[in-house]
Design brief:
With about 350 residues, the chain is mainly alpha-helical. It is built from 12 helices and 5 strands. The protein folds into 2 domains: about 220 residues, Rossmann fold, CATH 3.40.50; about 80 residues, Tyrosyl-Transfer RNA Synthetase (Orthogonal Bundle), CATH 1.10.240. It has a 3-stranded parallel β-sheet. A two-stranded parallel ribbon has the order 4-5.
Length: about 350
């Protein structure tokens, strides 16, 4: 049996992650974690808690310090397996920072500014602050370093992150062309479930938007949140024909209810006004609770053993550092920073 600390040399690798700003919600599960779960058998996986990528340390650090443990518990709860996969604390790997610095020479500012995801984030930031921190431009480079350092082959992400993967490939190719085959040129993979709408039906589900169902929510909280969900606003009575398309309750049925025959039946009856919201929501609660109950239980059992969680995070972070060592050595040598290896070199042409 192979263990996380002794991976077979030929196993292909994944790196993916998120900013740990709070507990994860069912949108994270549908859009990301369920896909990671399916991939962790096949790939040696590095799951990154991207704490370096905080937009404002002073304000956000208490959230990150708390959120990092919350997310680690969520990952353990859904069944990401620390025996096979590595949970990595980004700031525990200073090589990320070093590689970011080197790679920042390989990416033009104009290139960053044309990235559609960054363009939107930059516009928000410019509206909110007097002066955009240089760190904003470091973070996409850091993300490239996150992927390239462990020589990841595959990066499962949301579709908003695809432009970042494109930049990563571009940087890897250009670095390799100049300095030899150091990096793997990675591929992105987007999951099947698009971004989940919030329980209010207004926008995407967000950790602090007040419209999220968290993985750690109790059964009662789950029931109450589903009861309070928005449905078809034009439908006043159970006998009114209702609209299924764009209706959050049915979007959740599609995402979380594996009994497609039941979902089809509910939709058909909803359209002709032969089922009430209460029944539709109750069936949704049953389906989601069946999914979340074991997650909740596994999560709680880890939460009761903080020392074990600490060990998981320490081991995963160490595993990445171990892989980083030789890669950084190659990068430094490639860049010519190995000044002390051979003593003084011959002067370059034209030297005085
Ligand atoms: N920027 C990503 C997010 O906000 C998180 C992230 C950091 C990431 N480094 C990564 C995702 C590397 C994929 C690969 O969600």
């Amino acid at each position: 049996m192979s263990t996380a600390s002794d991976p077979p040399a030929d196993r292909r690798r994944i790196l993916t992650g998120l900013r740990p700003s709070g507990p994860s919600h069912v949108g994270h599960y549908a859009g990301a974690f369920s896909q990671w779960l399916a991939l962790q058998d096949e790939y040696e996986s590095f799951f990154l808690l991207a704490d370096y990528q905080v937009s404002d340390y002073a304000d956000n650090l208490p959230w990150i310090r708390w959120g990092l443990w919350e997310v680690a518990l969520d990952w353990l709860g859904v069944g990401l397996d620390p025996e096979r996969s590595h949970f990595v604390i980004e700031s525990g790997v200073p090589e990320f920072a070093e590689l970011t610095l080197h790679l920042s020479w390989f990416l033009g500012l104009g290139h960053l500014q044309r990235n559609p995801t960054l363009k939107a984030e930059l516009a928000d930031l410019e509206a909110a602050t007097a002066s955009v921190p240089v760190a904003f431009f470091n973070y996409p480079v850091m993300q490239i370093a996150n992927i390239l350092l462990p020589l990841a082959h595959l990066v499962p992400v949301g579709d908003d992150q695809l432009p970042h993967i494109e930049m990563t490939r571009d940087v890897a190719i250009r670095f390799n062309r100049r300095f030899g085959q150091v990096f793997v040129v990675p591929e992105g993979r987007v999951g099947q479930v698009p971004r989940l709408v919030g329980t209010d039906g207004k926008g995407k589900m967000g950790t602090s938007a007040g419209n999220a169902i968290f993985l750690k929510d109790s059964e009662d909280t789950l029931r109450a949140k589903i009861r309070g969900m928005f449905t078809d606003p034009k439908r006043l009575r159970a006998t009114d024909p209702g609209t299924v398309e764009g209706n959050p309750v049915f979007m959740y049925h599609d995402a979380f209810n594996p009994d497609t025959a039941e979902v089809d039946d509910l939709k058909a009856r909803y359209r002709v006004g032969r089922v009430g919201d209460v029944e539709v929501k109750d069936r949704l609660f049953q389906a989601m609770n069946a999914l979340l109950a074991p997650i909740r239980e596994r999560r709680a059992s880890w939460a009761a053993r903080p020392d074990d969680v600490r060990d998981v995070l320490a081991a995963g972070t160490a595993a990445l550092r171990q892989r980083a060592g030789p890669v950084m050595q190659q990068v430094r040598t490639g860049l010519g920073l190995d000044y002390l290896t051979d003593g003084p070199p011959p002067p370059p042409p034209g030297a005085p």
